Amino acid sequence: MNPEQNSAGLSWLFRMAWRDGRASLKRLALFMSAIVLGIAALVSIQNFGKTLEETISGQSRELMGSDFLIDSDHPANERVQGIIDSLGGEQSREVNFVSMALFPGKEGSKLIRVRAMDGEYPFYGVLSTRPDVASERYQADGSALVDATLMVQFGLQPGDSIKIGDRIFPIGGSLLEAPGNTVVSTSVAPAVWIPFNTLDQTGLIQTGSRLQYNYYFKVDPSMDLEKLYTSIDPVLDDEGADLDLHTDTSRRLGRRFENVGRFLKLVAFIALLLGCLGIASSVHIYMKEKRASIAILKCLGASRKQTMAIFLIQIAGIGLLGGILGAALGLILQQVFPQFVQDFLPVELAWETHWGPVLLGVGLGVLMAVLFGLLPLLKSWFISPLSVLRISEGDTRGSKRLTAFVFALIALGIWAAAALLLENATRAFWFVLGIAVTFMILAGIAWGLMRLIRRFFPHNWGFEARQSLLNLFRPNNQTLVLVLAIGIGTFLISTLYFTQDMLLARAEIEDDTPAANLILLDVQAEQEGEVEAMIRPRGLPVLENIPIVTMRLDQIEDQKVETIRKDTTSTINGWILNHEFRVTYRDSLIPSEQLVDGEWISTFEDKSGPVPISLSDNVARDAQVWVGDTLVFNVQGVLMETVVASIRSVDWGRLQLNFSIVFPEGVLEDAPRFHVLTTYAEGETESAVFQQELVKSFPNISVLDVRQLLSAVGDILEKLSWVIRFMAFFSILTGFIVLLGAVRTSKFQRIRESVLLRTLGARGRQIRRIAIMEYLFLGGIGSLMGVLLSLLGTQLLAYGVFELSFTPSWIPFLVVFPGITLTVLTIGLLNSQGVLSSPPLEVLRKEGV
Amino acid sequence: MSKILNVQHLGKSYLSGGKSLTVLDDISFEVASGTSYAIVGPSGSGKTTLLGLCAGLDTPDTGTVALCGSHLTELDEDGRASLRNKKVGFIFQNFQLLPTLSALENVSVPLELRGTKGAANTARTLLEKVGLGDRTHHYPSQLSGGEQQRVALARAFANRPEILFADEPTGNLDEETGERVVELLFNLNKEAGTTLIIVTHDLNLARRCDGLMRLKGGRIFNSETASHP
Asked: What's the structural domain count of chain B?
């Protein structure tokens, strides 16, 4: 039976929420800052991602410079040329390849990407040069457009010369901007544009030259490109060519940024999760402080729903405000991203506000605040009005069923948010499960620890040490909450560190790379001896001389490649069928290789039967062949039957020449081949002089300067790691707030005890020591467990998500573990400072104990 | 005279250190409407627990409480809250004002909960009546103990309660201020015709009431009706 409820309506609830909240703003600031940081990280990443996605897809024609292109690694044959001719519209041809350039009158040489162009390319986007007219004239006056950075590097001016192969070009102007160019893509081999009709005069079209033929098209806007793709791409495939629509380019580019984007989203989500812990911990403190007010309100006749609603409105309001502030901060922050990543992007990013991420951020702010505030808020339901009298009615823990329900709601909320961000419900499920398991393990450890201390209590320890241990399991202790908060915070921070470390380490060049620092590419068979003769007299070693023979697959088992191409049910990867393989022969494995199956054959002595070859595991997987299967190769017109004798795993990350197909010695020695030679030049000058003279004598040879390459890669990594560290900073800052909240949570019990001890005559030093030991213990256990769990977590991430091997660094153990332990100690002591330095009565009065 | 409070065979135990501790045992008494009644007894005698049960702040283990015609054991938590809002007022030893609300807002709360229009004006009048017309926008922390208790008095009478429960109303005040607050309490009570139940140690205060009950060890030691008018 329930008499009519009181008549106070919704407006009263809002009024009360405001009246009560305005006085608590300072206390709620901690709660709000946790939300602000989490949401800011999320909105900045989401908004930046959206801007990037829209810019890329909106500028797809400008990125390609055309509506579509046909590309191939060999000149168009009759059939392909027929298709090209039939397509009409405006057309442009390009041959591009890597070569060396010399600058007559200047010192030094440089690896460049030559783009021999004809026609009006680009049809879309800009070809920006200085002077402007250079881009219009270079085709007619036979000049070259040289990458602007390269011009600065060699002190070149328009009118100077550049020698590519056998031809010297006047420099028409510097190339500032071209479709698809990025600072990073041009840092190793900057682009030089030359007229197509001068290509033959360079003399660089030779065996082994890695040439890319592109045919660009601008067609009537009404043409259905997708239909065109469906009808002619299969035909082009048969001829080893490919049709790329402008939309494919932007899709590919989008995919390239997807991995980085996914990682950054994970980082942002971790910041938000840490923020959520901050929310739970702050609301816990807040509701503790509000206990008396809740009892008074109930005593005055407010219902349980009304009292809970007042604080729910406050928390949702703070969530909303935090969400808005966080979204605004996120929008400001995302302006910083283009500065970090612009060099990786072929498009100019403009600062845009997307309302989707903003609304998502604000919505998540409210949702997460309410969800994570719900558990401590629920306690208000069970606070008895009897608390206003002097009776301690003790238990306000409430019903287990309700608590379980709230936990389920929280898990559902995290899952929904994760699914929304990661755009993958299954991955989000595993993520939530991982977090839940981590919580359970940490809670189990904290619980087990308290049991152990009780069981094996060190009664013979001194008073201070005993007291600090006793504090861990006093009534209403916060040990579990603290170890959980510290542990989860540490877990997330060090998982972030381990993951970042793993990703960056993958990209780094290992210390044990071969000593070679100059790699000579495209050395023709007949030049091999002469080049060696040029290297040795200078006192430089010839470290490796690797022969390379190009070939294509003709048959897999008993099926011709053309038949497999036409077979729509075939699951063999298409690239295998069209690729021109660069194959070497040698008698042994190299350090980056490991035999995983079959037998390594060093020499083909029995000249009858198929040639026993070795495949890398990825090629074997994509071609779907195993040891014992036969493959027929077309070696420049000659068909050669082979059998897979072994399969190797290859560490492609090593900076050395790796091959997917290796022949034994005694087979390809007479085939048309070219060589790669490696050497080592100690000083930069020595290296530059050698390169210059080599290019003068052998214009077709390209030199890869590993020293320059490493410095370029180093720059790229530095920029990338900045983005990651910038985002990680948010998580760490949020983690700090969580720690502050967690330590404050236990402040109330601590104050009561400290004051009592001081009243009984304990000196400040003794109380301080008790506090130090207790915080050290809590911080140490929580952070150590966090780091150890993150080791396990990262191992799982490495295996399941990134598919990388993971060797943990010592930094989290040496920095994160003691760092967080000391932070807990510092925050704890700062929080207790007032208690330690003031007279007991003053503290009692101030804290209302 | 009708009975506003009827307590029959009331019993209450708490768990203490795993053992059941009987705080109240078989308490029965009645209070007539419009009278004042004091509950006295030493610390731990169960008088505050009795006050909490009579006001519907807690539920008994045995027995019944009928308050303003409603059987409290038949109401749920929110039902009892609603009854308190409409018919019951409280005065506490430590004032129990909402610290984040001003004096005026504190007095307005019971009126707002009832949906009374012009709550602020009524609250202002009540504050003037207790002599705090110039302190309406002060927060509890800006008021002295006596002033806080006067705000509590104004709040207690704000919803024109049928019965007022006072728990050691002078317990946190000095003698002089305590006397002034008691004077004010009885005057307001007389003016409003409210039933007053006071829990106190102070026998002088108890003797000003119409009835008196002594508790000892959770049982009624004796009860009497005062001789004064």
From this structure: 1
